[in-house]
Every structure is written in C-alpha cells, then in structure tokens.
Amino acid sequence: MQKISGKAVNRLKLYLVFWIFLSIVFSTVIYMQVRKETALSAEIESLTAQVKSASAKSQVLQTNIDLKTSAKSIEDYAHKHLGLVYPNEIIIYDDNYQGDK
C-alpha cells in the first residue's frame, strides 16, 4: 500500500475545504433564488387577483355608464321627472293628488 506524504494530505484537505466552501456558497445562492421566486410568485398571484377585481369593477361601471347614457334611459328620466310628453299622449292632472309630495 502506498503512503501519502504530508504535502499531499494538506493538499487534499485544502481541496476538501474548497469544495465544501463552494457547496455552501452555491446552496446559499440557490436557496435565496428559490425564496425570491416564491415571493415573486405570491406577488404575481396578488396582482392578478387585483387586476381581475379592477376589471370586474370597470365592467360594472361601464355597464352603468351605458345604461345611464342610453337614449331609452334618458327618455324615461325626462318623461318621469322633467315632464316629457309623447306625441298623442293625454295627461290628466288631479289637483288633489298628493302622491309625489
């Protein structure tokens, strides 16, 4: 069996320490990247939920705008509140009626 000299043992120890150091550094870097990716994934999910919520709210608001600016809704409002009279419409007033007061 061959005997290993003191310099060879020191060199092997140095290589071993070097590889352990590299392993620790790379493991730490990979761990930090995984944590960063996990945090970014959670942020993406949160932002996606906010976008969906804002989109739904925007759609509701657009529907309300469309309803309030349609010719039919404007005509109905004018007829009920502003006294619009349709052609050939007969209006009967009752001086004793107190329903709107």
How would you describe what is shown here?
The protein is an all-alpha fold and 101 residues long. It has helices at residues 6-69, 71-81. The protein is rod-shaped, with a radius of gyration of 40 Å. It is built from 2 helices and no strands. It has one domain.
Total helical segments: 2
The average pLDDT is: 88
Query: Which word captures the global form?
Result: rod-shaped
Low-confidence stretches: none
Structural class: mainly alpha
Find the count of extended strands (DSSP E, 2+ residues). 0
Distance, first to last CA = 115 Å
What's the structural domain tally? 1
Radius of gyration: 40 Å
Main pleated-sheet profile: none
Element string (H = helix, E = strand):
HH
Helix content: over 70%
Strand percentage lies at under 5%
Can I get a quick summary?
This protein is mainly α. Helices cover 74% and strands 0% of the residues.
Search tags:
2 helices, mainly alpha, 101 residues, single chain, 74% helix, rod-shaped
Give the helix/strand layout:
Blueprint: H1 6-69, H2 71-81
